[in-house]
Design a protein that fits this description.
By secondary structure, the protein is an all-alpha fold. It is built from 17 helices and four strands.
């Protein structure tokens, strides 16, 4: 039994382990090949985040979903490269929008080379993903285009904020479904589809990915508040410091509005203040960790992970299904 992929997923079958490890190694090689350019500077910028590493969560899901057909089918690895390239491209763009300084433990591309280079590098990665997609057929292009539309729509919704009268928590979950759930859903779809699985299986794994992707992002929201830097790999309260209203904060605001408790209103006021001050930031983090809003966010994470797990019920039992179930459990475990 060996740990592979994100969070140390345990694969309990040697044949499955070999397939996944070989596939992920091929994806790494494919990512490096896809980010090469005749212009050395473009290669350096495009490979910046590839070489910084990452969980490769989406390619792993492609590999596991492919187990319900022919996992060695020729489209499986290229589809994995496509979803990871797309994800990486969004990170370049996100870091520009968020004015992020660090990504995956290294300087963000916008910090190192400026916003223009970071945006154009993201565009370069999208172009390379499209080039690979063209060889996978028109249906793959259509599916990826739909997911990309949802992803961009989610980003726009996040930027615009909830419409008048809309529940901010509902709006946020719509944003996450678009920004994260859509591409994870495509990972499940591509894996099964490229492997020649039947339509029912393809749809099951698509819906599984949609819910798992949302749970994955919500777990990150909880981790940003609840974990120390050793657990999460980043400084706790990063989103708080940057003024990003993630799910625990939105639950807090809803509780403060509904009940008007003095302590809730005080915490909201603290969060609305200058959290670049280390002492105020530490106080906000301490109080939010003890607040029921954090537990509400955990429950939402568990709910989406349980929905993902339930989607798998019709699939035949086996090591691949067990690994997908364990992914749900590991996402919940991350959220505490």
């Amino acid at each position: 039994m060996t740990a592979v992929g994100p969070f140390g997923l345990s694969v309990r079958d040697q044949a499955l382990e070999a397939d996944v490890q070989t596939g992920l190694a091929a994806v790494e090689a494919g990512l490096l090949d896809a980010t090469k350019s005749d212009v050395p500077f473009i290669t350096e910028a495009a490979q910046h985040l590839v070489r910084a590493g990452g969980k490769r969560f989406r390619p792993l899901l492609v590999m596991l979903s492919a187990q319900f057909g022919d996992p060695h089918a020729p489209g499986v690895v290229p589809a994995s490269v496509v979803v990871e390239l797309t994800h990486l491209a969004t990170l370049y763009h996100d870091d520009v929008m968020d004015e992020a300084l660090v990504r995956r433990g290294v300087d963000s591309a916008n910090t190192r080379w400026g916003n223009s280079v970071a945006v154009l590098t993201g565009d370069f990665l999208f172009a390379r993903a499209s080039h690979i997609l063209a060889d996978l057929g028109p249906e793959a292009v259509r599916i990826q285009a739909g997911a990309f539309e949802r992803l961009v729509t989610g980003q726009i919704l996040e930027t615009a904020g909830p419409r008048e009268g809309q529940d901010p928590v509902e709006h946020y979950l719509d944003v996450i479904a678009g920004k994260t759930g859509s591409l994870v859903a495509v990972s499940g779809r591509f894996g099964a589809m490229m492997a020649g699985a039947d339509e029912r299986t393809v749809e099951i794994l698509t819906q599984y990915g949609e819910r798992l992707g949302t749970a994955f992002q919500l777990a990150d929201d909880v981790l940003d508040i609840a974990s120390d830097s050793h657990e999460s790999g980043k400084t706790p309260g990063t989103d708080l410091r940057e003024g990003i209203a993630t799910l625990p904060v939105l639950h807090l605001r809803a509780l403060a509005e509904q009940h008007g408790r003095a302590e809730d209103l005080e915490l909201v006021e603290l969060l609305d203040g200058d959290l670049t001050d280390d002492a105020l930031h530490a106080e906000a983090l301490r109080r939010l960790r003890a607040h029921p809003a954090l537990e509400l966010a955990r429950r939402d994470t568990v709910r989406y992970a349980q929905e993902a797990r339930a989607m798998l019920a019709p699939l035949p039992d086996g090591y691949a299904k067990s690994a997908l179930v364990e992914l749900c459990d590991l996402v919940v475990h991350r959220a505490g």
